[in-house]
Amino acid sequence: MKNEELFKREQEKWISKISLKNNFELADIHMVAGIDIAYWTEGKVDYGVCCIVVIDYITKQIIEEVEYWGKIDVPYISGYLAFRELPLIMEATKKLQCKPDLYMFDGNGYLHYRNMGIATHASFYLNKPTIGVAKSYLKIKDTDFQMPKNEMGDFTYIEVDGDVYGAVLRTRKDVKPIFISCGNWIDLETSIKITLHFVEKNSRLPITTRYADLATHASRRKYTQ
């Protein structure tokens, strides 16, 4: 059986278990982790590094940073990126001394062809609520999105066949929007609220995934020198 068929079966077994409802109280969220991955190739071998940055929800100070890098054994298949990323993510989480209450991913969650982007897929292994924060739009079934107003906090829903897959969120005035989707065990309204909570003046991205993104680029430079 081809990898694509195996991956599809694996995702399909989780789909019915996705919950777009909060399984927590916002007051119980103390530590939020941002996750990102960067790749590079040496010869014919692909490598990747996963960086996790854990931030205090109230003070917005960094609590902990970890990374894990290694060879990538899973080939890239469109729509199944989670299988390529998950091994690195799980190894990186093993290094954490703290226990994040929620994870935010540089990528999609429910906003995915099968509603199983990395934020959703990984949730079943992390056993924590997750949010997908994407910098670009993953177009599904030729569905375009409506641009939100040029006001901080304004958003529009992304609907596919009558189902809300995510939101286009304007995090700052006069900057491009980002694309928010539930990962698992959280609703879209809360996902947007938490994302906006972590947005600061110098970026359209929440500091959770922004710091993780910066860390992966620094790590990749370190390992490719």
Automatic annotation (TrEMBL):
Enzyme class: hydrolase
Molecular function GO terms recorded: deoxyribonuclease V activity; magnesium ion binding; RNA endonuclease activity producing 5'-phosphomonoesters, hydrolytic mechanism; single-stranded RNA binding
Record keywords, A-Z: Cytoplasm, DNA damage, DNA repair, Endonuclease, Hydrolase, Magnesium, Metal-binding, Nuclease
Main location: cytoplasm
InterPro entries per the UniProt record, alphabetical: Endonuclease-V (IPR007581)
Cofactor: Mg(2+)
Site (Interaction with target DNA): Y76
Gene Ontology CC terms, in alphabetical order: cytoplasm
Binding of Mg(2+), residues: D36, D106
A GO biological process held by the record: DNA repair
CDD domains: Endonuclease_V
Catalysis: reaction(s): Endonucleolytic cleavage at apurinic or apyrimidinic sites to products with a 5'-phosphate
EC identifiers of the protein: 3.1.21.7
UniProt subcellular location: Cytoplasm
Function according to Swiss-Prot or TrEMBL: DNA repair enzyme involved in the repair of deaminated bases. Selectively cleaves double-stranded DNA at the second phosphodiester bond 3' to a deoxyinosine leaving behind the intact lesion on the nicked DNA.
Entry similarity comment: Belongs to the endonuclease V family.
The name this protein goes by in its record: Endonuclease V
Gene that this polypeptide is encoded by: nfi
